[in-house]
Amino acid sequence: MAETTQDDVVFRPKPSLPPPPNTVGVVGWLRKNLFGGPFDSLLTIVGVSLIAYVAYSLYQYGIANAVWEADTYRECLDVTKGNGACWAGVSTWMNGYMYGRYPDVEQWRVNLAGVVLAVWLAPFWFPKIKAKILVGMSAVLTFPFLAAHLFLGGEAGLFLQVMVAVAMTLFATVWLNVGASYLGYPSLRVALLRLSGFENKGDHLHKYVLLGAFGVGFVIAFAYQSTWELAAVPTQNWGGLFLTLVISGIGISSALPSGIILALGRRSKMPVIRVFCTAFIELFRSVPLITILFMAVTMMPLFLPVEINPDKLVLVIVAVCIFAAAYMAEIVRGGLQAINKGQYEAAQAMGLNYWKMMTLIIMPQALKVMIPNIVGNFIGLLKDTTLVSIIGLYDILLMAKASGQDGKWLGMHTEPFLFTAAVFFVVCFCMSKYSQHLERTIGGGYGRR
Amino acid sequence: MSLETLDSGQEHIASAISDEVVIELSKVNKWYGEFHVLKDIDLTVYKGERIVICGPSGSGKSTLIRCINRLEEHQQGDILVNGVTMDTNLKNIDAIRRDVGMVFQSFNLFPHLTVLENCTLAPIWVRNTPKAEADRLAMQLLERVKIPEQAAKYPGQLSGGQQQRVAIARSLAMNPNIMLFDEPTSALDPEMISEVLDVMVGLAESGMTMLVVTHEMGFAKRVADRVIFMDQGEIVEQNTPGEFFNNPKSDRTKLFLSQILAH
Ligand SMILES: Nc1ncnc2c1ncn2[C@@H]1O[C@H](COP(=O)(O)OP(=O)(O)OP(=O)(O)O)[C@@H](O)[C@H]1O
Ligand SMILES: [Mg+2]
Questions:
Q1: How far apart are CA A153 and CA B219, in angstroms?
Q2: Of A100, A341, A414, B257, which one has the fewest beta carbons inside 10 Å?
Q3: CA-to-CA distance for A429 and A383, rounded, in angstroms?
């Protein structure tokens, strides 16, 4: 069979030729995508002119004819005759758009919390850091307490103080771990054991060494935070983008965990849990957010005992969290349904119990499938939080409206909303881009790119 | 159809059957809704025994072996695996699953984990093996299935035959004493079938207790201590491969054999 005789036809592949010209390069691209035929060309010309017209008008309104310095809206109008933007008003009100009525001298606390969160989460993007989940979990679980204390100020209860100290200790742990990793230790744990000389002295002691180190950190943090004297800022004074981010941030970070739990509950074999979760999801998904907000603010207090006089913001946040969880639950359920039955069977056959199967095998795969939907949901939630303006919370949208009703800037309606739109666009666009990046990198199509 | 896949001239592998019973099914019945899939199944498997189960499609072969590790629940009768009774007690089920490995027709590797991680996951999370130890063991097993160089790849980057060998290594990593195979080569191209069967023959030589659902009759002749023929949820006939192929008793078996050997 391997012998070749003269009768055998020998297969010779044809040489590869370059593609015909006009199909590659800039010209090829233009031809294919913009001027593929008379109708395509017409569409291209109309489209480009439309874009040019809009861009030109925006430029005229927003830059060429705009006024950057003025004391009142009247002054602006005198210059622009209504043909240009009055950015002077926006910049005067900028502080309000960002912080609402949060006192100027206390605003550093808001900024500080923002910086702390950014620094806390930064190791997420460091290639050398392993336990990234722990970085995220520590921030999600304890940062809210630290932030609440910073934002609210005043006398903190013992519980809040303890949580603040825990948060600070975890923050320090995350960054000491970064330090240890870049100094060549496998992890902070090993570094601590090695430096304290316990590495080879019996594994059962390790736990105590590590706990001890954490304890020392906690005591220092606790002592430090008890020296803070922060003026109280009631939530009525919170506002602007800051308030929007607080509400949507809590909504977003609680949505995924609670959504996962609800979705698992809905698929549970136990009837009580299944019925409860299904009812919860269906109820809150079929009601508009604004209704839930009104219910929360006006009806909830009626059900609660009189002594508890809940903060309006707390009620709103609870409502947003419930709403977000119900939506997320359905996304998660969809993701779970995309996972092949064989994956469950393989996991069960090797003896993994339900929770290990879910966390190690099913969820990681489902989450990857769900990323676009999850981020889409987050973006929607961020925008939906502007509804809180209707029930009188001074979020960025209501601040924008308020600025046009202010004596000096009476009548300034377009500029604040353009500005708000730009802020939302930037935030949402970044989230969207980041989600696309995540889709590409997480598991990288499992090695197939 | 597949007598040629393994050279049928090769000798039957010596078996090392002990008289210790590892699996015992008595009067097992199972229904899917109204449909009676398993009818009064009695089966005793001894330690070290290699059993091949064959039969037409839909006869309940998969269902039978999936009852042994509780991927399917039976409604009547008793199943005893390694001396543990299969019931609704999760502890018992987990104990059984730890010691029973399973290989699927569609591999079911975890696509988000590398080959090595696929093999170390269960030892680490179920048996609490330290990671370094689990890695070492997994590498040994990957060498045994002859793909140590693929350890860092993802399943999606491997051929079907390679994936199935990883799946076998993954099951072996739990150090099971019983291995169940559900048509392990049915999803494979002909060239890849033999590389998987080779691994299974090696496993048989090492004395593993194996229950294999397969249509690879060459494999059955060479490896099986007993061939079981199922139809319509019943065990129609069971015998040594020699007797089974050369001297089938039941007319149903004869028909089946003539059909599959006709190809
Ligand atoms: N989950 C299920 N629900 C209802 N019927 C089922 C289910 N799984 C299998 N069956 C039915 O039970 C019968 C036996 O199925 P089983 O998978 O055990 O057959 P098999 O012998 O393995 O067949 P094959 O060779 O095609 O794999 C089939 O008729 C099948 O349609
Ligand atoms: Mg089957």
A1: 76
A2: A341
A3: 12
